[in-house]
Amino acid sequence: MEVWDPHFHLWDVTENTQSGHDSSQLFAPKDNPVYSLDLYKQDMLEAGSGFEHSGGAFVEAVSVCHIGVTGDEFASACLAETRWVSKQLSNSNNCFIIISSASLEDVNAGKILTQLAENPLVRGIRQIINYEPSWPRNEQLGDLLSNPRWCEGYAELKIYSLSYDFQLNPHQFIDAVRLVEKHPDTPVIIGHLGSPTINDLTENKDVYWDGLNAFSDQEKTYIKISMLSYIDKNWEQNSLVQETVLRVIDLFGIDRCFFASNFPVENHFGWNADRLYKAFVSLVDCQYKKEDQRKLFADNAKKAYRTETIQL
Prior knowledge:
Layout: E1 2-8, E2 11-12, E3 34-35, H1 37-45, E4 52-59, H2 71-89, E5 95-100, H3 109-117, E6 122-126, H4 138-141, H5 148-155, E7 163-166, H6 173-182, E8 188-190, H7 198-201, H8 205-216, E9 221-225, H9 239-252, E10 257-259, H10 265-268, H11 273-284, H12 290-304
Parallel strand pairs: 1-4, 4-5, 5-6, 6-7, 7-8, 8-9, 9-10
Antiparallel strand pairs: 2-3
Helix pairs in contact: 6-8
C-alpha cells in the first residue's frame, strides 16, 4: 500500500534554532530537540513492509508558537520555518510539499503570502483557529472567523493559488462554511476530522454533523482522518470512532477523504506507525475495495495538494 502522508511536522526546538519554532509550545520527540526529515522517515518505516512511504505534506507548526507575538516578528518566524523545512526536503527523492503558515489577519498578509508562494513546494496555508476551547495563540487573537481583516486575508489565497487547511472546532464549522462559500475556487482541507472531542460526537453531535454536512456540500473541500487520539487515546477500541470515520467517508465520498499520520504528535501519545497504520487499515479493510483504500492512503491527498506539478 502506498502511503502519501498529508499531515506531518518537522521542527527544531534547540536553544538557538533558526527554524522559527518555539520550545515553550513544542516538545522534543523522544528527547531529541530536532525532529528532522530523516527521523520522520525512520518513524514511518515502522509501519512495516506492507506500506511504501512515497512522501507527503509537511504542515506548519508555528501557528501555536510565539504567543503574543504579531506583525513582522511573527511573519519572520513563518518564513523561517518554510526556509528550514525546504532545506530538510531538498535532498529527498520522495514527493513532498509544504503547508506554510501566515497570520491572515495581519495588514501585511499579502506580503508574506507573496514570499511564501515563490517557493514551488508551498501549496497552501494553515493557521490554527480553534477558539473556545482555544489553542495557544487564539486565546489572545480571538475567533478569527469573525475578524473582517482575517477574512480579507483568506480571500487573498486565491491570488496565489494556495489552498487552506482548516483546524477549528465543530462549533465554528458553519461560520467557516459561510466563508468558503464566498471563495469557492480556494481548495479547503479540514484537518483532524474537524477536531471533535467525545462530547462533540455525543452530547453535541448535531452541531458536529450539521456542520460537516454543510462542509461536504462544498465541491473543493476535503477532510483528513487524523489525530483520532484527540477523541480517545485508545481509539482503535472505541466503536464510536470507527462509526464516525465511516460516516465521514460516506458523507464526503471516497474521493475527498484521506488518512494522515500527524507525526510526531501521534507518536508522542503512543501511536507509532505500526500501531497507527494497522488501526487505519482495520477501519476500512472490510468496508472498501483495495482501489478505494489506495485513494484513502495516497491518491486523494496527492490530488488535493496538486502534487502532479511538483518537479522531482
